[in-house]
Amino acid sequence: MNKTRIIIGLVCVVIVVLLIVVFTSSSTTPTTNTSTVASTTQTLGGALYEGVSQNPAQNMPETNPLSSKNVNPFQKAPKNPFE
Question: Model pTM greater than 0.85?
Answer without folding.
Answer: no
